[in-house]
Amino acid sequence: MLQDSDWRYKFFTKRTMGTILTNPATTIAEKLQQKFDSLTRAERQLANSLLDNYPVSGLTSITTVAQNADVSTPTVARMVQKLGFSGYPEFQSALRGELEARISNPIAKHDNWATTAPETHILNRFADAVIENVRQTLGQLDPVEFDGACTMLADKERSVYIVGGRITRALADYMFTHLQVAREKVTLIPSNSNTWPHYVLDMQAGDALVVFDVRRYEHDILKLAELAKERGVEIILFTDQWSSPVSKFATYRFNCRIEVPSAWDSSTATMLIVETMIASVQDRTWNITSDRMEALEKLFDRTKLFRKFI
Amino acid sequence: MLQDSDWRYKFFTKRTMGTILTNPATTIAEKLQQKFDSLTRAERQLANSLLDNYPVSGLTSITTVAQNADVSTPTVARMVQKLGFSGYPEFQSALRGELEARISNPIAKHDNWATTAPETHILNRFADAVIENVRQTLGQLDPVEFDGACTMLADKERSVYIVGGRITRALADYMFTHLQVAREKVTLIPSNSNTWPHYVLDMQAGDALVVFDVRRYEHDILKLAELAKERGVEIILFTDQWSSPVSKFATYRFNCRIEVPSAWDSSTATMLIVETMIASVQDRTWNITSDRMEALEKLFDRTKLFRKFI
DNA sequence: TATTATCTGTAAAATATGTTGCAAGACAGT
DNA sequence: ACTGTCTTGCAACATATTTTACAGATAATA
Fold first, then answer.
1. Looking at residue A218, what DSSP letter applies?
2. How far is the CA of B308 from the C1' of C3 (A)?
3. Which tens digits make up the pLDDT trace of B208-251?
4. Rounded-to-integer distance, Cα B33 and Cα B31, Å
5. Which of A39, A77, B189, B223 has the largest count of CB atoms under 10 Å?
6. Is residue A109 domain-resident?
């Protein structure tokens, strides 16, 4: 029966626990608790002080830490060495590392996106970068501003104009296509800036102008924004983290992160914000939008442009 | 003496800043975002670096912070003073204070994308859906196929044609704009299908046709794909999870998830794949692409289309 | 284009921080 | 009580950090 081997069981258990407890102390807090028994009086005082409000309390200078724990500075220096760090700076750096891991979004350290591809495959590296862009963009985005812009775009009294630059033209086009379904009085300003004055001519005070401008910021777009602003047009700006100069004319500004491992910039995070904004506008104008969608369906049927498959 | 006007200057400065500050900046992150416009180039760089991995990145020495942001140490010292702190140590102490509040707060709000918006805000719901789309899309994507398509698009012997539908036209446009920089012989087929036969006429066996087709699948695009296929053109298809009928002519097919909480479909996941593909193609054609980019820069300079700000 | 104002990095000074040697103090075992 | 060992803080030293002064660079303006 088990009785006989019982002592062995306990023995091995102890051994096992011993190895667990001596080796893989992942966090400094664990290390402190583990070594607590072997610590001296002053060191225990210090350890308690550190664990209290961990890990922030350890992020001040060694002097301050010592004062908070009511021990001398050398005691701190000696104890962190006991913990296996070369010195206080290294200890602190480890603390920061822990904190970072704890703070950062769990999505960010998703295993692999393309599960059958290696971690270093561009699919995974690119996806990582884009998700990080999304995280940062949304983290910095003010929901009140966002809602404000949506309300403005949902206001059927205002005409809406949309303009993009060399790269962002595609985003402008995309937004236009969807907003056009949601409401009337939406105009896509073409990329040829020669014709822009004609569009400005039609703009009324209170109209909305959606501007896409990321680096390299385009001079003509700045001029257009200025002219529009002078006519009392409200400007909604989509730009990058460095902010287009159009900012100074903008009522609402959205900074989207665009950095990816490539020679140019990513529009995916911006696209996400644009899509969310379209969705939100459609929600607000739903009584109108649903009618328009239905009418659109009928038009499609009559032009036979689309056919239902499957 | 300057003293008199100095006082006024400060007073008005304060007033002006006061209006900006009406929504009180509680955190340093908010302060940074609020003051972003009044910051200089190096300071913006620094602000971005600080917001990146906020607030942990600000808990190192001023030297390290400067290095991470690629600015000089004094720039950091000056900016924290601009933010209203007496010096770097005070700034850091404020950061620690925030962190403490955030850490000790039992409500972990790291789950939300837009941290200041409620979970049910469309920003969070939409982001959740899109990230899930990305996850699923990449999970199902075959890296070998992906690499195959990239190699094909990087082959400078082949001409590349790109075509999109009503909604996906923007994606086609986007891909075209970038591929055109990377290599020659890239053509965007316009959305008006009347002109399509002319394009088919030019297609040679071995050329590549990138087709975007998501629901509602478009009849004309299917026809175009069929004609192209008959001429020996290789087709790369971007479609949704239900697959466009173009599949049967396609050499490579990429199914992208498109479902979001709205009346229409999201293109963000598709955009991500497209961008990754462009990045990969550029990698493969880098010796050519870098030359083209340089030439393009020079052309920009000569046309004065873009101006460098700040 | 020249001029002015502003920005930004280098370098050095001022200050704070971290480390180590040393002696006084605490404590356990004889 | 004595002895030896271990612990602890003081103080000096070495090092790193923060600040300040200055000059070159850059952008804005006329």
1. B
2. 21
3. 999 999 877 888 898 899 999 999 999 999 998 778 889 889 99
4. 5
5. B189
6. no
The Cα B270–Cα B268 span in angstroms is: 5
The answer to whether residue A10 is domain-embedded is yes
pLDDT of residue B7: 25
Task: Mark which of A82, A103, A124 sits at the end of a domain.
Answer: A103
The residue of A27, A140, A173, A288 whose CB has the most chain B CBs within 10 angstroms, and thus the best one to mutate to test that interface, is A140
Nearest to A242 by CA among B22, B46, B293, B244: B46
- CA-CA distance, B89 to A61, in Å (whole number)? 10
Domain residues for the domain of A32 are 2-103
Nearest to A47 by CA among A91, A112, A98: A91
Same domain membership, residue B296 and residue B254: yes
Strand order of the β-sheet with A252-256 is: A186-188, A160-163, A208-212, A234-240, A252-256
Question: Do A144 and A75 share a structural domain?
Answer: no
DSSP-assigned letter for residue B217: P
A window 75-104: Cβ near strand C (< 7 A):
77-78, 80-81, 86-89, 92
Separation CA A24–CA A159 (nearest Å) = 64
Count Cβ atoms within 10 A of the Cβ of residue B292 and give its class: 0-12 exposed, 13-18 middle, 19 or more buried: middle
- Could B115 and A166 be called an inter-chain contact, meaning their C-beta atoms sit closer than 8 Å? no
Mean pLDDT by 10 residues, chain A (310 residues): 26 28 61 76 82 83 87 88 86 85 56 66 89 88 93 95 93 95 94 88 95 86 91 94 86 91 90 95 88 78 51
Q: Could you give the strand order of the β-sheet that contains B234-240, starting from the edge strand earlier in sequence?
A: B186-188, B160-163, B208-212, B234-240, B252-256
Task: Using alpha carbons only, give the angle B130, B131, B134 rounded to the nearest 5 degrees.
Answer: 90
Mean pLDDT, chain B, rounded, equals 81
Please report, rounded to whole angstroms, the spatial distance between the CA atom of protein residue A11 and the C1' atom of nucleotide D25.
73
- Amino acid in the structure at residue B37: D
Distance CA A291, CA A294 (A): 5
Residue with tokens 């939008």: A289
Both A81 and A148 in one domain: the answer is no
The answer to whether A76 touches B39, Cβ cutoff 8 Å, is no
The verdict on residue A112 lying in a domain is no
- Our CA angle for B267, B168, A176, nearest 5°, is 85
Residues 105-164 of A with CB under 7 A from strand D: none
Distance, CA of B111 to CA of A107 (rounded, Å): 9
Residues of A in contact with B173 (CB under 8 A): 169-170, 173
The C1' atom of C24 and the CA atom of A46 lie apart, in whole Å, by 22
Q: How far is B124 from chain A (nearest CA, A)?
A: 9
Element (H, E) at B235: strand B234-240
CA separation for the pair A300, B167 (Å, rounded): 14
- Residue that finishes a domain, picked among A51, A78, A103: A103
**Cβ of A72 near strand D (distance < 7 A):** yes
Q: What is the CATH number of the domain that holds B167?
A: 3.40.50.10490
How far does A15 lie from chain B, in Å, by closest CA?
36
Query: How far does the CA of residue B36 sit from the closest CA of chain A (Å)?
Result: 9
Phi, psi of A59 (to 5 degrees): -95, 5
